[in-house]
Design goal:
The chain is an alpha/beta fold. The chain has a single domain, classed as Rossmann fold (3-Layer(aba) Sandwich). It is about 30% helix and about 25% strand. The strands form two sheets. The protein has a seven-stranded mixed sheet with strand order 5-4-3-6-7-8-9, with helices on both faces. A two-stranded parallel ribbon has the order 1-2.
Length: about 220
């Protein structure tokens, strides 16, 4: 192995543990393309939401790509061990909220965040997550929550029950990785793939949402 390709590393410092080149790709341009295709007629209704303070940079980056507002779910504990009090910083009333994060494990925090946003007046809540771990019946929790949809990538293969969930949609990263490999082999810049305009053609018809490996019912 002479080079490593990754996507949305949980910590950028992980790259420092390799003694060979590491190229970290991002799901955000894929998410941008998908969101623009889904909400092209009402982009002004969108607000990108970070599920916690730690994810603000990621959410801000997607909000900037889309040219929409940013909101944050803030969690505070009065005392150690107490259940965190959650509040929303930003305006979500009457808006379609896009929760964005890098990992969805049990989906507990994600679902609580969606419920809070609906309580605060959001009309819809969609989550865009890079890595769908989806452990401990997470898909059932998602189906019973206020989330309208969960969009993940195929960096982690999910099982049949999760794939057939009516609320879960899976976007393929294969075109992006294939193009990155070709760029490396030809000695051209991988960083050009960080911009949605440079990869949109990889995902076909501009009038349709991106390829989804979820079964259509």
């Amino acid at each position: 192995c002479s080079r490593v390709l990754t996507m949305d590393l949980h910590s950028a410092q992980i790259q420092g543990f390799f003694d060979i080149p590491v190229d970290n790709l991002y799901a955000s341009p894929i998410f941008e393309i998908d969101l623009r295709r889904l909400f092209q007629s009402n982009m002004n209704d969108l607000v990108v939401v970070s599920p916690d303070i730690g994810g603000v940079a990621r959410a801000r980056e997607l909000a900037k790509r889309l040219g929409v507002d940013l909101a944050v779910i803030d969690k505070r504990r009065a005392k150690p061990g107490e259940v965190a009090e959650m509040s929303v910083i930003g305006t979500v009333k009457g808006r379609k909220c896009i929760l964005v994060d890098d990992i969805c494990d049990t989906a507990g925090t994600l679902c609580k965040g969606a419920d809070l946003l609906i309580e605060e007046g959001a009309t819809e809540v969609h989550a865009y997550i890079t890595h769908g771990v989806l452990s401990n019946s997470a898909h059932k929790r998602i189906e019973e929550s206020a989330l309208n949809s969960l969009v993940i990538t195929d960096t982690i293969e999910i099982d049949t029950d999760q794939r057939e969930s009516p609320k879960i949609r899976v976007l393929s990263t294969a075109p992006l990785f294939a193009r990155a490999i070709l760029s490396i082999a030809s000695g051209t810049s991988v960083s050009s793939l960080f911009q949605a305009k440079n990869i949109e053609w990889l995902y076909g018809n501009s009038d349709l949402p991106l390829f989804s490996s979820t079964n259509t019912k």
